[in-house]
Amino acid sequence: MAQRIAVPADGESLDSNVFEHFGRAPYYVLIDIENDKITNVKAIRNPLIEHKPGDIPGLLQKNNVSVVICRGVGRRAREYFRAYSIEVITGASGKIQDIVEAYIKGELR
After folding, report:
1. For residue 60, what is the enclosing H or E element?
2. What is the dihedral of CA 106, 107, 108, 109, to 10 degrees?
3. pLDDT (tens digit, 9 = 90+) per residue, 81-100?
4. Helices (H) and strands (E) in the chain, counts
5. What residues contact 36, with CB distance under 8 A and at least 6 apart?
6. What residues have CB less than 8 Å from 4, skipping those under 6 apart?
7. CA angle 102, 108, 109 (to 5 degrees)
């Protein structure tokens, strides 16, 4: 089953790092995974650096994201993600490539 992961990032590729502040990330790297393999990677620039609650979860939901992996996320954003049936995994830091590989192996919770 294919799924799309979003990671807030300081750049536009898998070599980028997880951006510490979820809502102020310059980019969201979207990673498509199918059969435990990365099939596509694209980055979207955060058009909502100044945003109101729910804007970024809505943006990611419109981009068919099913999982968000990040360092941390606020309570209100979590509520929006839950309403959109988007799973949130927190505590991630470092290079996005490493984090996605850990996710595929089932090492992130």
Report:
1. helix 55-62
2. 80
3. 999 999 999 999 999 999 99
4. 3, 5
5. 104
6. 30, 31, 32, 33, 63, 64, 65, 66, 67
7. 165
Bridging pattern class, strands 27-34 and 37-45? antiparallel
pTM beyond 0.85: the answer is: yes
Q: In this structure, are residues 13 and 29 in contact, taking their beta carbons and an 8 Å threshold?
A: yes
Alpha carbons within 13 angstroms on the beta-carbon side of residue 79 total 5
Tokens of 104: 């595929």
Q: What are phi and psi of 98, to 5 degrees?
A: -65, -40
Residue 51: DSSP 8-state = -
Whether the CB-CB separation of 92 and 69 falls below 8 Å is answered with yes
Phi, psi of 28 (to 5 degrees): -125, 120
Q: 18, 16, 40: which is closest to 108 by C-alpha?
A: 18
Cα-Cα-Cα-Cα dihedral of 46, 47, 51, 54, to 10°? -70
